[in-house]
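Dear Dr. H.,

I hope your travels went smoothly. While you were away I took the liberty of generating a structure for the chain from your last submission, since the lab meeting agenda had it listed for discussion. I wanted you to have the full record in hand beforehand rather than looking at slides cold. The sequence, exactly as received, is reproduced here:
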Amino acid sequence: MNRRMLGTLFFMAVGYLAGSMLFGRFLPRHFKNMDIEAISEDHNPGTANVMKYAGVPLGFLCLVLDIGKGYLPVLWAETLIEPVSLLFAGIMAAPVLGHAFPFWRNSHGGKAIAVSFGVLLGVLHYSKSVWLLAVLYLFFSLVLVIKPNERRSVYTFMLFGAVSAVFLLLGGLPGICVGNLLIAAIVIHRNWSDARFGEKAEKKWKRERMGDL
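The corresponding predicted structure, in token form, is as follows:
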């Protein structure tokens, strides 16, 4: 096994382990003695729930750490593996996979939005795809509003993946384009069942409300 492959496996392992650290679960327990998953409606150990139930300062800290655990492993990996290599795609996907499906929790993790932004910020020198993801989220949040949040994430990452596939066909960096596709697939898979549940809950609420009128 050559040095590049060993380096790739090392950075994938580092990224996955970093991603599996669920700060949205640990920090509220440590500082507030609060179980975010138990008290939140969607039972997600994410930044939004920490801000809502444990306060903005702690939520902001979780946001920074979740972004950082995607950003730092990828930035470090760039010192050895070039983003043009397909091997780099696995390095990009590893922190997102760790957050969404941590090995120590029977693969029940968070929705992997903040860590995805962190990974894309880590390759900002080579690709501006982080801005594409940000614009898509803003569009589906402010212009063509999609609810609930999980369904918005599914639509956003579907379109993000589609655009990344087009860039790959047009000659974009294979490592980053395929990495974007892997990230999109992980986030879509993680949010899909929650999106369907949220949609059913919303329809049920509307039916009950119509019955009260």
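Two observations you may find useful: Residues 174-212 form the longest helix (39 residues). The chain has a mean pLDDT of 89.

With kind regards,
E. W.
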